């Protein structure tokens, strides 16, 4: 029956094909950047569907971003000829988690219309709890505790499980109590935070084996992309869904959508019970070491870049122990990048010690391939200007006679503050750009206010939303009233909106506040009634108009007000794509990378972290300076691991490029309002001479452009002439730093602030170490 190879398989190399066709049992694809891991996953799903092994609804597929999920869905559709009627379980851990939780909310003490809180809501809530404990919230900042909770949740820890030291570290030893109080408060609010989207299902599965069994029967195939960046909670969640004990999996190989002639016998059941892996300590006794199902994880240990957020690269290194009998497939051919780009990235990442080490090769080498180009600029303004020029040059086709699309270009920054300069510059140039995964539309003040109204209409127990808008626009419902409402609600354990409805019947409030509150309640009653009858976009408009919110901005004389009104219009417009207000709200709370005008040709600006898995013809990597990249935080840590994660980030950055990779560093940078004289990143020293070239200073900036500065600084003929550890730009930079300071000071009009990590900083040590 193998007579004809389906089209979707024919382009694959033998290893990729093996990964696609080994549908039964655990499979790990461990391979470097651009080797087709994601393509394998996509094709694998297409193959499972095309051969009738499962229905779309029986496949659980986890991607790292919502955008990646959308793209995967599209490609599968293309591969199997549009026959995919939705893949309900293809998404991020969070989006799948929320879906599971909505179906079983009552099993963890929530109602199915629970609210998902964003970071700001969480911080407000924690602040209240800290104050309620009689603690000083300046000494014990809510933001800090929110981060602690996040860390615990990433590790899958309930209040009872957090380490004693952690519990003692915050709020005079009240860490554990506060965490407990926080969880209780969430329950009262019928709300959960992002961590709960995974932890609640884990709790729920453990407490309800029958529910878990239903999911075991449902999910015939499990697939995970970017497996190297799963955290412990995600890992526990996956293992719960992936393991099967033989007596409780009657559906395997029975019924379902089986292809004709397809063998029914599963390959991995009934095998010997494997010994416990080292990770089994995370699991309760009943969940240890059971046979597993058809799970396929793909990843690259060199691209593990979320350690700071709790990702455990060990998860991928442990796969064979966790899933006994796993087939491990390596892919070594890179289909994305030129030889120069791969050579540069490979040489750089070889400086990391803690890695498996992989072979990568490409036959995408052409004589006119560009090397990786390193550029220097005076400061970030010039950097943005020069990048803008380069982009326009490519766009016009000056470089090679070909006009290049902006869609094929990306600027990948280490820290989001770097974006502003590029945005400003591109606005000036009239160059289309989009910020991916950055300060988002939905995070704007007016949007968040409007959303609070919508949330409260859909979910009357949402006290945080209530507090946000009860006096926005101003209605004379100040702090005193809100506190009275708050106390009343707490005493009776009811939501604040309900408390308000009761309180207006009493004479506990001043007449003016009582009247104003009465109106608010009436409005919400009316809007809630219309929820089922009025089209949701119309209702949204009514809410914004009747509440006086739109008028508030119409009467506002500030320069931003018109823009805010436009944004509100846009918000209502953006709801059209959804079936209900609830669906929309859920979407907003999940979507981390909102893109506007996805159709336009535009340069992408994003952080290196959000560039994972993506590829572009041309990649610009600005800000390769000590203290920014590697980031100061990693340097301060002192250990190897932080620095190695930075290096992996650099590896991710370079390997996003298909054909052109431009790296930049500046001599002076303003960080947190202070000017700093900077040193080129050590990562520049770690690039191999053969694949890298140093750009001639191409500055258009008067003062120092072609004159002395640029030319003397870069010995274009042989920038690496001196030694491996002291390439041309560094010597020049060091020689130049004194000479240029005055010049610079006059030009900018700012005081120069030299910060410690210069000549004698960690860089010095690094050079010795090499
Ligand atoms: P990353 O580690 O960056 O996530 P990856 O291993 O997931 O990379 P893909 O994004 O799947 O790699 O593939 C990289 C590029 O190579 C894509 O453009 C993909 O279409 C292409 N590609 C993968 N396999 C093949 C193949 N067999 N033939 C032609 N092109 C391929
Ligand atoms: Mg990928």
From TrEMBL:
InterPro entries: DExx_box_DNA_helicase_dom_sf (IPR013986), DNA_helicase_UvrD-like_C (IPR014017), DNA_helicase_UvrD/REP (IPR000212), P-loop_NTPase (IPR027417), UvrD-like_ATP-bd (IPR014016)
Single GO MF annotation: helicase activity
Range of residues in the leader sequence: none
EC number: 5.6.2.4
Binding site for ATP: 31-38
Keyword tags: ATP-binding, DNA-binding, Helicase, Hydrolase, Isomerase, Nucleotide-binding
Catalytic reactions of this protein: ATP + H2O = ADP + phosphate + H(+); Couples ATP hydrolysis with the unwinding of duplex DNA by translocating in the 3'-5' direction
Database matches in PANTHER family: ATP-DEPENDENT DNA HELICASE SRS2, UVRD / RECB / PCRA DNA HELICASE FAMILY MEMBER
Family, as annotated: Belongs to the helicase family. UvrD subfamily.
Entry protein name: DNA 3'-5' helicase
Organism, as annotated: Ciceribacter thiooxidans
Upper taxonomic lineage: Bacteria, Pseudomonadati, Pseudomonadota, Alphaproteobacteria, Hyphomicrobiales
């Amino acid at each position: 029956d193998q007579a004809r190879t389906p089209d979707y398989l024919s382009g694959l190399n033998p290893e990729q094909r093996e990964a696609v066709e080994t549908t039964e049992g655990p499979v790990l694809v461990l391979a470097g950047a651009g080797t087709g891991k994601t393509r394998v996953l996509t094709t694998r799903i297409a193959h499972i569907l095309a051969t009738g092994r499962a229905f779309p609804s029986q496949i659980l597929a986890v991607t790292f971003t919502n955008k990646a999920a959308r793209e995967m869905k599209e490609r599968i559709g293309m591969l199997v000829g549009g026959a995919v009627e939705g893949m309900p379980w293809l998404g991020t851990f969070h989006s799948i988690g929320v879906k599971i939780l909505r179906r079983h909310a009552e099993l963890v003490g929530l109602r199915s219309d629970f609210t998902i809180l964003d970071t700001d809501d969480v911080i407000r809530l924690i602040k209240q709890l800290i104050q309620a404990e009689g603690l000083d919230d300046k000494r014990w900042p809510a933001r800090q505790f929110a981060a602690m909770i996040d860390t615990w949740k990433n590790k899958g820890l309930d209040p009872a499980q957090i380490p004693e030291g952690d519990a003692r570290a915050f709020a005079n030893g009240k860490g554990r109590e506060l965490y407990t109080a926080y969880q209780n408060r969430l329950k009262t609010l019928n709300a959960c935070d992002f961590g709960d989207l995974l932890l609640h299902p884990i709790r729920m599965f453990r407490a309800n084996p029958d529910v878990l069994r239903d999911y075991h029967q449902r999910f015939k195939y499990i697939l995970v992309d970017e497996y190297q960046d799963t955290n412990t909670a995600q890992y526990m969640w996956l293992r719960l869904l992936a393991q099967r004990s033989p007596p409780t999996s009657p559906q395997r190989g029975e019924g379902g959508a089986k292809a004709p002639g397809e063998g029914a016998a599963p390959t991995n059941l009934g095998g010997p019970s494997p010994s416990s892996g080292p990770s089994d300590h995370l699991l309760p006794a009943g969940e240890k070491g059971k046979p597993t199902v058809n799970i396929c994880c793909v990843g690259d240990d060199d691209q593990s870049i979320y350690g700071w957020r709790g990702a455990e690269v060990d998860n991928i290194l442990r796969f064979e122990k966790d899933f006994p009998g796993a087939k491990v497939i390596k892919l070594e051919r890179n289909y994305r990048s030129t030889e120069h780009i791969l050579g540069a990235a490979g040489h750089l990442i070889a400086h990391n010690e803690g890695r498996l080490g992989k072979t990568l090769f490409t036959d995408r080498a052409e004589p006119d391939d560009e090397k990786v180009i390193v550029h220097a600029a005076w400061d970030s303004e010039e950097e943005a200007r020069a990048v803008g020029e380069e982009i326009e040059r490519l766009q016009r086709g000056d470089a090679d006679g070909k006009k290049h699309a902006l869609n094929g270009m990306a600027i990948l920054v280490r820290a989001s503050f770097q974006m502003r300069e590029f945005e400003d510059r591109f606005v000036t140039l009239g160059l289309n750009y989009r910020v991916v995964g950055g300060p988002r539309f939905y995070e704007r003040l007016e949007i968040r206010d409007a959303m609070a109204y919508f949330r409260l209409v859909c979910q009357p127990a949402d006290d945080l939303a209530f507090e946000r808008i009860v006096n926005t626009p101003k209605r004379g419902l100040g702090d005193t009233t809100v506190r009275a409402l708050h106390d009343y609600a707490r005493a009776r354990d009811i939501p604040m909106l309900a408390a308000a409805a009761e309180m207006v019947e009493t004479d506990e409030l001043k007449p003016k506040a009582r009247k104003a509150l009465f109106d608010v309640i009436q409005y919400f009653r009316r809007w809630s009634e219309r929820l089922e009858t009025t089209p949701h976009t119309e209702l949204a408009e009514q809410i914004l108009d009747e509440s006086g919110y739109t008028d508030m901005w119409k009467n506002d004389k500030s320069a931003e007000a018109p823009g805010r009104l436009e944004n509100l219009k846009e918000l209502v417009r953006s709801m059209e794509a959804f079936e209900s207000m609830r669906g929309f709200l859920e979407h907003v709370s999940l979507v981390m990378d909102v893109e506007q005008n996805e159709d336009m040709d535009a340069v992408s600006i994003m952080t290196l972290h959000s560039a994972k898995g993506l590829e572009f013809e041309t990649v610009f990597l600005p800000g390769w300076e000590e203290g920014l990249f590697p980031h100061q935080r990693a340097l301060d840590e002192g250990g190897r691991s932080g620095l190695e994660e930075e290096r992996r980030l650099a590896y991710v950055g370079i390997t996003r490029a298909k054909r052109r990779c431009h790296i930049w560093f500046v001599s002076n940078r303003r960080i947190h309002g202070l000017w700093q004289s900077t040193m080129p990143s050590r990562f520049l020293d770690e690039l191999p001479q053969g694949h890298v070239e140093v750009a001639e200073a191409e500055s258009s900036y008067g003062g120092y452009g072609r004159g002395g500065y640029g030319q003397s600084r870069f010995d274009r003929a042989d920038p690496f002439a001196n030694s491996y550890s002291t390439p041309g730009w560094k010597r020049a930079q060091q020689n130049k730093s004194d000479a240029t300071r005055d010049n610079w000071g006059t030009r900018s009009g700012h005081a120069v602030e030299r910060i410690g990590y210069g000549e004698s900083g960690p860089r010095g040590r690094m050079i010795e170490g090499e």
